[in-house]
């Protein structure tokens, strides 16, 4: 009788989690979504390793915390600059604020309400910022802490905020409203003053119409007691705050957009909706002193200048030694409809128009002085565009722009995929920077970047980090991400290996995507060997090698046939829900109706054995950096286009690259430039296939019916589909949290194909899917729920649109990755649809490759939409014979049960949860490697999990992560002959001697549903953990943390989880964020040292940490926004100027607006909401002793600050006492000897 180990049973119990059972049975039993066979999986208690591995990681090592956000603020709305601190703030439509200083100083804050930011105002040199948001709330942000927090908020209940103005060194904020009233808020207490300027008091009593909202507020540079109020309808009022009446009123026929003062306070300039600028003199307010339409042309009658587009903003800045600058946005003539947005700079008689690539949101002129009543001396203009931030140098006559040091061009071409590498070899960053620096652009201003505020230090974290982003135009960017900063190192253009597509050739090519055919879909990088591999959306793989030398050479290319041949299937019972309703049912085994159009080609030729793109055949100059070594392209087979690549792996030691799609697997030797394996997934099993699929009959020739509706392209019926429009950022819509309206962003446009294949799909989905909860969807939303063919009658019926339903939306750019999910009749998104789109599997056959017949009558219930049925019945396998390759991994491993030593293997994971091991037989010596063929053969080993396989890893017998072997980098183009001829140096991470290796290793395999740890070579399932029953994993990575190893998982329900290895104990489970769109799902990735990232918007990368240690140290790593700077002194105005230049009396706002004089404002008008203030900074650093120390440090800082203030006050009191004593003594001496009558 076998001994019973009670301690190991307890270990098994502790490995369970709230999210799912973890135990030994056959791979977790057959719970919801279970029912799967698990050959090779045995009871966890029995299969526990003989020597218990001591795991060091506990839940105390983990905590989730956002670290920093990089990139351009998405959908910007507002701009502000502190001229003393020299920091810049940008507000956005999503309620975010980004504060930027010197490189490294970059802070992100978010309004909890998410309301758009209307306006930002710095309290200049005070370390504070006021934001006005679209929900009519004012917020005061404290910037004197590393993570700004709100000190006060003031919510207006009855009026809508339209404009705010805070005079320099004032604590009273003027707030204009939509009703035309002006309120005054005390910045210190954030309480409304009783002083209100009502619109009906400000305008003439005889005026019969409302002047409109307040569009401008500013105090006179000459007299702070005069407030200039601009109303939308063209009325300007100079209000005397002391006497509470209007000093002057000016009227103009055109609506006002902005107002700007001359620094002397005698003139002001207005910009209007007809493209005109009016200059007004305070002495004659009846009509403008000067009116110009800068871009207007004089009409034929010679009298009137034509009106232009509105001038949205004007700034009027004076110089001591030259003419003033008038800078404005807009105002171009209407006759040039295609003219780009422009900023105009008028300096004296010279007019310079700077054309921008994107619409202008706002601009600010940076001046030498913060005082409004001095010569402004402008030196730069910050221009905030919809998708860019530029700064123009005004000190040079050609107005060059400054080189931007921030990483705000992440979205230069939309990001399609990301990879993150922490703790990579330290020599990589300088090497990449040296080859990238040669591509720097010229023509920038030679001056320093003017936004130079804040302070930043390197912090304690010193390991190098690299982020790689793949883009829609085929470019790949390498970024230095060390110490929570981001700086671009190197840019690689993968499209350069292909011939450019000439216009007009579209119909004669084999391209499967029309827009962005070079979009990067997957990347694989080996930092040690510097091998880099890219899989593109047009079904190709490019292998790159790194060289420091330029080379002129031809690009080697291979073509691979990878197509799964099956016959058309006609299912007699369409009403039955398929057993794989949302998974591989979308890996179409059915020949679809659109598929049958390809042989009725315009050219009359069936496409076969031709790739989608053509590789350059002539020698190509390759600059230093990454140089293309080999291009592998999948080809069309019998008129069927190749499917997109779903998995990719490279190994430099073996010299092999492997990739798979929903048809099968290909393995290529990139050293000998030969294809070693090109096989359908089913053929990989051989006799080991656990699902005994029925043999197929030979593929039938396709029958065509000329009158079939589907034979004609959809573009014949909806011509707008053929007009490809490049989508703007607005098409990258932020989606609502409703599970029904989730539109997922996808990497390729599905609506039109170059060549003979036209989009022709059954249109019965259109009425159901065009508008799901009001969201217009894409025509790619078909799934293969049924194998029933649609007759032409069915299709015609299906084509009838519901009332008011528009046809399919216009085609979207590949770059925008936007696709709609199949939605079940109950409104839940198909879980599989999302996952398949994440992995790029062509399940609904984007790019018109495999549109399958679909009947919407099949109703999926809620369980079916979230959990996959696993049935081994013949019918289910028949119906879903395609099995995508979803994960690949090269490693030294035991391929079979009876192996005694490790050997090179390729682990293959599929969309049905199957794991296959392929043996790699490599030539024994380095010399033979170049000539002898490499043998790849299935080992017969098959392991199973629930759900599509996501990731593999290998641990040695001590539980340490075993890295795949690699070849040490050597320059392939080195001038040194010894470098070229020397032997390849391979690093085998696995210990060589069997004594060190032990007699077994652990294989860690994670699928979208569960994780398993197998002991090899016995193939015993030691541990299994069902990670989720109701959702599915989007990303899983085995990572190192604190010299140990764990499995990090990101789930579609927003949870981030970590599991210990090898025992799979849950260590962390935090509901971090819901996956509201495909962008997050496609770009989320974990890396070592507890770091992760994802694309939070189309333009921004959000980094986070799941390490407690990094959370504790984060405060030290972040930059300081506020640094002590002396406020510059105001210029001495001189005696005469002071006497004649303005009002002599001082203006006391406190006396005028304070409660004693003005009284209290109505309570119902605005509600004061106290903020979290400085506590937020403490809370961010909280946790254990570090939190206590941080709190103590902040308390000491505050105490020190107060003591400092006390010292200053004491010193000033002593000084004044001494002065008083001195004066008293002088008086006493003066009158000491005088008699009383002499006084």
TrEMBL record:
Record's keyword terms, sorted: Cell membrane, Coiled coil, Cytoplasm, Exocytosis, Membrane, Phosphoprotein, Repeat, WD repeat
Renumbered residue ranges of the record's region Disordered: 15-48, 777-811
CDD domains xref list: R-SNARE_STXBP5
Subcellular location: Cell membrane; Cytoplasm
Membrane topology: Peripheral membrane protein
Biased composition range(s): Polar residues: 777-789
Pfam families in the cross-refs: Lgl_C (PF08596), LLGL (PF08366), WD40 (PF00400)
Stretches with biased composition (Gly residues): 20-44
WD repeats: 249-290
Record Gene3D superfamilies: 1.20.5.110, YVTN repeat-like/Quinoprotein amine dehydrogenase (2.130.10.10)
Keyword Phosphoprotein attributed: yes
Coiled-coil zones: none
InterPro entries referenced in this protein's UniProt entry, alphabetically: Lethal2_giant, Lgl_C_dom, LLGL2, V_SNARE_CC, WD40/YVTN_repeat-like_dom_sf, WD40_repeat_CS, WD40_repeat_dom_sf, WD40_rpt
Main subcellular location: membrane
Domain annotation V-SNARE coiled-coil homology: ranges: 1174-1234
Family under the similarity heading: Belongs to the WD repeat L(2)GL family.
Protein name, UniProt field: Syntaxin-binding protein 5-like
Species the sequence originates in: Apteryx mantelli
Gene this chain is encoded by: STXBP5L
């Amino acid at each position: 009788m076998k001994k019973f180990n009670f301690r190991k049973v307890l270990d098994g119990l502790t490995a369970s989690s709230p999210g799912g059972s973890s135990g030994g049975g056959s791979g977790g039993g057959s719970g919801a979504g279970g029912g799967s066979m698990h050959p090779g999986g045995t009871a966890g208690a029995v299969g526990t390793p003989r020597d218990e591995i001591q795991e060091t990681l506990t839940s105390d090592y983990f905590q989730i915390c956002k670290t920093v956000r990089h990139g351009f603020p998405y959908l910007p709305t507002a701009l502000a600059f502190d001229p003393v601190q020299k920091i810049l703030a940008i507000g956005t439509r999503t309620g975010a604020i980004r504060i930027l200083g010197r490189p490294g100083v970059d802070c992100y804050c978010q309004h909890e309400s998410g309301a758009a930011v209307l306006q930002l105002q710095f309290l200049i040199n005070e370390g504070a910022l006021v934001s006005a948001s679209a929900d009519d709330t004012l917020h005061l942000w404290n910037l004197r802490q590393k993570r700004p927090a709100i000190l006060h908020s003031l919510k207006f209940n009855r009026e809508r905020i339209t404009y705010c103005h805070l005079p320099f060194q004032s604590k009273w904020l003027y707030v204009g409203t939509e009703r035309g009233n002006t309120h005054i808020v005390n910045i210190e207490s954030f309480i409304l003053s009783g002083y209100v300027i009502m619109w009906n008091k400000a305008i003439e009593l005889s005026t019969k119409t409302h002047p409109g909202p307040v569009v401008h507020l500013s105090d006179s540079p000459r007299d702070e007691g005069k407030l200039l109020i601009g109303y939308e309808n063209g009325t300007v009022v100079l209000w005397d705050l002391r006497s509470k009446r209007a000093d002057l009123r000016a009227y103009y026929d055109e609506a006002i957009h902005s107002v700007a003062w001359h620094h002397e306070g005698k003139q002001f300039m207005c910009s209007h909706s007809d493209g005109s600028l009016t200059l007004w003199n305070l002495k004659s307010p009846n009509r403008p002193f000067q009116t110009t339409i800068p871009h207007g042309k004089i009409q034929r009658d010679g009298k009137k200048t034509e009106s232009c587009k509105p001038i949205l903003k004007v700034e009027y800045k004076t110089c001591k030694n030259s003419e003033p600058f008038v800078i404005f946005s807009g105002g171009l003539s209407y006759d040039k409809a295609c003219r780009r947005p422009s900023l105009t700079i008028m300096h004296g008689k010279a007019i310079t128009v700077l054309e921008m690539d994107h619409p202008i949101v706002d601009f600010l002129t940076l001046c030498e002085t913060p005082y409004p009543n001095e010569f402004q001396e402008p030196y730069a203009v910050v221009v905030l565009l919809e998708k860019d931030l530029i700064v123009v140098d005004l000190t040079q006559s050609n107005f060059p722009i400054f080189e931007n040091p921030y990483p705000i061009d992440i979205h230069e071409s939309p990001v399609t995929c990301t990879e993150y590498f922490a703790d990579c070899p330290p020599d990589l960053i300088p090497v990449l920077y040296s080859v990238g620096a040669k591509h720097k652009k010229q023509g920038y201003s030679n001056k320093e970047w003017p936004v130079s505020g804040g302070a930043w230090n390197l912090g304690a974290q010193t390991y190098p980090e690299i982020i790689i982003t793949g883009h829609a135009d085929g470019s790949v960017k390498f970024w230095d991400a060390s110490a929570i900063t981001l700086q671009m190192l190197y840019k690689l253009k993968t499209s350069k290996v292909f011939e450019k597509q000439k216009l007009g050739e579209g119909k004669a090519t084999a391209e499967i995507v029309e827009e962005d055919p070079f979009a990067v879909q997957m990347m694989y990088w080996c930092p040690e060997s510097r091998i880099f591999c890219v899989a593109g959306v047009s079904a190709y793989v490019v292998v790159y090698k790194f060289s420091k030398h330029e080379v002129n050479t031809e690009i080697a290319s291979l073509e691979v046939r990878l197509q799964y041949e099956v016959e058309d299937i006609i299912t007699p019972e369409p009403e039955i829900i398929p057993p794989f309703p949302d998974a591989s049912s979308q890996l179409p085994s059915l020949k679809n109706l659109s598929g049958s159009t390809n042989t009725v080609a315009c050219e009359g030729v069936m496409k076969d054995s031709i790739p989608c793109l053509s590789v350059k055949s002539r020698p190509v100059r390759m600059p230093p950096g990454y140089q293309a070594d080999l291009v592998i392209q999948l080809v069309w087979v019998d008129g069927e286009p190749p499917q997109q690549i779903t998995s990719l792996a490279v190994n430099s030691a073996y010299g092999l690259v492997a990739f798979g799609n929903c048809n099968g697997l290909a393995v290529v030797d990139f050293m000998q430039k030969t294809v070693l394996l090109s096989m359908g997934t089913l053929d990989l099993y051989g006799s080991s296939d656990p699902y005994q699929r029925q043999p197929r009959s030979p593929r039938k020739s396709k029958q065509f019916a000329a009158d079939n509706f589907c034979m004609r392209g959809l573009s014949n019926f909806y011509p707008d589909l053929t007009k490809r429009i490049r989508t703007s950022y607005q098409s990258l819509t932020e989606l609502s949290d409703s599970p029904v309206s989730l539109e997922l962003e996808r990497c390729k446009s599905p609506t039109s194909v170059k060549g003979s294949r036209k989009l022709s799909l059954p249109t019965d989905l259109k009425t159901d899917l065009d508008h799901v909860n009001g969201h217009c969807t894409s025509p790619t939303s078909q799934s293969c729920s049924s194998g029933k063919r649609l007759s032409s009658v069915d299709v015609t019926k299906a084509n009838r649109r519901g009332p008011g339903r528009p046809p399919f939306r216009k085609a979207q750019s590949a770059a925008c990755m936007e696709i709609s999910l199949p939605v079940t009749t109950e409104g839940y998104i198909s879980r599989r649809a999302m996952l398949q789109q994440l992995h790029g599997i062509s399940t609904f056959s984007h790019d018109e490759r495999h549109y399958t017949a679909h009947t919407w009558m099949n109703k999926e219930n809620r369980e079916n939409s979230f959990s996959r049925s696993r049935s081994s019945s013949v019918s289910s396998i028949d119906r879903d014979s395609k099995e995508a390759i979803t994960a690949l991994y090269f490693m030294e491993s035991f391929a079979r049960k009876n192996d005694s030593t490790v050997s090179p293997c390729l682990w293959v994971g599929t969309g049905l949860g199957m794991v296959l091991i392929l043996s790699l037989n490599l030539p024994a010596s380095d010399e033979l490697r170049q000539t002898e063929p490499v043998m790849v053969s299935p080992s017969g080993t098959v392991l199973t999990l629930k759900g599509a396989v996501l990731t593999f890893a290998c641990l040695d017998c001590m539980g340490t992560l075993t890295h795949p072997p690699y070849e040490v980098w050597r320059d392939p183009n080195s001038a040194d002959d010894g470098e070229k001829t020397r032997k390849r140096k391979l690093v085998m991470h696995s210990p060589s001697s069997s004594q060190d290796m032990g007699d077994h290793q652990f294989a860690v395999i994670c699928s979208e549903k569960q994780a398993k740890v197998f002991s090899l070579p016995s193939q015993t399932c030691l541990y299994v953990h069902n990670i989720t029953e109701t959702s599915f994993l989007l990303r899983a990575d085995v990572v190192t943390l604190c010299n140990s190893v764990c499995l990090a998982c990101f789930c579609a329900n927003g949870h981030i989880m970590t599991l210990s290895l090898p025992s799979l104990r849950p260590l962390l489970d935090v509901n971090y964020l819901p996956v509201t769109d495909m962008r997050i799902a496609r770009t989320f990735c974990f890396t070592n040292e507890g770091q992760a990232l994802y694309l939070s918007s189309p333009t921004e990368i959000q980094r986070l940490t799941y390490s407690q240690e990094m959370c504790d140290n984060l405060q030290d790593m972040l930059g300081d926004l506020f640094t002590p700077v002396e406020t510059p002194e105001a210029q001495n105005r001189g005696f005469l100027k002071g006497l004649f230049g303005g009002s002599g009396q001082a203006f006391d706002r406190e006396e005028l607006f304070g409660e004693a004089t003005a009284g209290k404002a109505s309570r119902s008008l605005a509600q004061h909401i106290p903020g979290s203030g400085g506590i937020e900074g403490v809370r961010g650093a909280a946790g254990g002793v570090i939190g206590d120390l941080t709190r103590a440090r902040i308390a000491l800082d505050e105490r020190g600050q107060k003591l400092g203030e006390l010292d200053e006050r004491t010193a000033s009191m002593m000084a004044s006492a001494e002065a008083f004593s001195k004066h008293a003594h002088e008086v006493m001496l003066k009158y000491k000897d005088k008699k009383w009558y002499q006084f």
